[in-house]
Each structure stands twice: as C-alpha cells, then as structure tokens.
Amino acid sequence: MKNTDDLFDKSLSIAEDYEEQMAKNRKKSDALILKDEYDQVVGFMLKDELFGIDILNVEEIIKPVDFTYVPNTKEFVMGVVNLRGKIIPIVDLRLKFSLEKKPITADTRIIVTRLDEYTVGFIVDKIERVYYIGKKDIEPAPSNIPQTIEKYVKGVGKMDNKIMTLLNIENLLKEGGGLN
C-alpha cells in the first residue's frame, strides 16, 4: 500500500515569481492590485494545448493512483478512487475531449475538482503552474472551437506569449463528469 503522503504533488504552489513580477511592475503610486482584476487558474497541458481551471474549484492535485474500474460507465470514466474515505470518479480529459489516449507518465496528474455536491478527479498530461489572468484579457470562446469541447469552454485567456483555454467546470462536472 502506498503512503498517502506520496500521493500529493508538492511542486504546485502559488506563483510567487509572478507576484514578485507584479510588485515590480506596480505604478509609482504603489496601488494594490485587486483580486477582482484577475483570475487565478491552474494551468495544465492536454496534448499540446494549455487549459485552465479556476483555482477556486481545485481541491488538490495528486499523482496518479490505482483506481477501481466501474462497469457500464462512459469510456472517459476510468473508475473511482477512495481518497481519504471519499469515493470520487476519475475522468480522463483526453478521452472526454475526443483526443487519443495517452499512457500515464511521470508528469501525469489528477486534478481533484469540486463544485457544489460534485467532486471529480481529472487526469491531465502535465501541470504547468498557477496563472494570474487579467479579467480584461479573457475573451468569450471562439466560434470555431470543436463541438466535442464547445460546451466545456467558458473563454480564452490571453497572456504575453500564450493562449489558455479556460474550462467551464460547472458543465464539465454536471454533464458526464461523474458516473452517470
């Protein structure tokens, strides 16, 4: 049996370097940057694309664990895990978004998300880091987004040299994220 302390990914922390950069870029008036001006999102990779989930919906990020297969579930539901006494479904986001299945690697993580009574673990290729995206830099989802993920996208975050697809966690969790 694995030690539960080994399950947690301690490499993900608040982007202190970003906070330092913001402090250096503040105007001479030393005005504080209000949290209402930006969103904090956990950035992760699926294939070659950068996605993000609002940090307020992320309970924790863990290393992959053995899961129990549940028959008669959708193909993207890999099974369930017992995480400190709570049974949660594990969903492979690659399969949910109609991407090819990828074997679990050293970079693979499970993002445990929660919204109301829904808690689901999403398998992702790699965690990037926590990003701060200005609310003014978030645009609605483009009209040419693939239909397979259209209803799961709430917008696109523009950063200096990156674009991040921001996921609508409510739709993800309520529509096929669980065992139904």
Which whole number gives the mean pLDDT?
81
Task: Give the class-level CATH name.
Answer: Mainly Beta
| Main sheet characteristics | 6 strands, mixed
- Low-pLDDT parts are 10-16, 26-31
- Named at the architecture level, the CATH assignment is Beta Barrel
Strand order of the largest sheet: 8-1-2-11-10-9
**What is the number of beta strands?**
11
Named CATH topology = OB fold (Dihydrolipoamide Acetyltransferase, E2P)
**Structural class of the secondary elements?**
mainly beta
Number of continuous helical runs: 4
Superfamily (CATH H level) name: CheA-289, Domain 4
Q: Helix content range of the residues, please?
A: 10-25%
**How many separate domains?**
1
Q: Give the radius of gyration.
A: 17 Å
Strand coverage percent: 35-45%
The shape is: globular
Please give the alpha-carbon distance between the first and last residues: 29 Å
Q: List the helices and strands in order.
A: HEEEEEHEEEEHEEH
Please describe the topology of this protein.
Layout: H1 16-25, E1 38-46, E2 49-54, E3 58-62, E4 77-83, E5 86-92, H2 93-96, E6 109-115, E7 118-124, E8 126-134, E9 138-139, H3 147-150, E10 153-158, E11 163-167, H4 169-174
Key words describing this protein structure:
180 residues; mainly beta; OB fold (Dihydrolipoamide Acetyltransferase, E2P); 6-stranded mixed β-sheet; 11 strands
Protein model, in words:
The structure is a single chain. The chain is mostly beta strands. It has one domain: CheA-289, Domain 4 (OB fold (Dihydrolipoamide Acetyltransferase, E2P)). It is built from 4 helices and 11 strands. It has helices at residues 16-25, 93-96, 147-150, 169-174, and strands at 38-46, 49-54, 58-62, 77-83, 86-92, 109-115, 118-124, 126-134, 138-139, 153-158, 163-167.
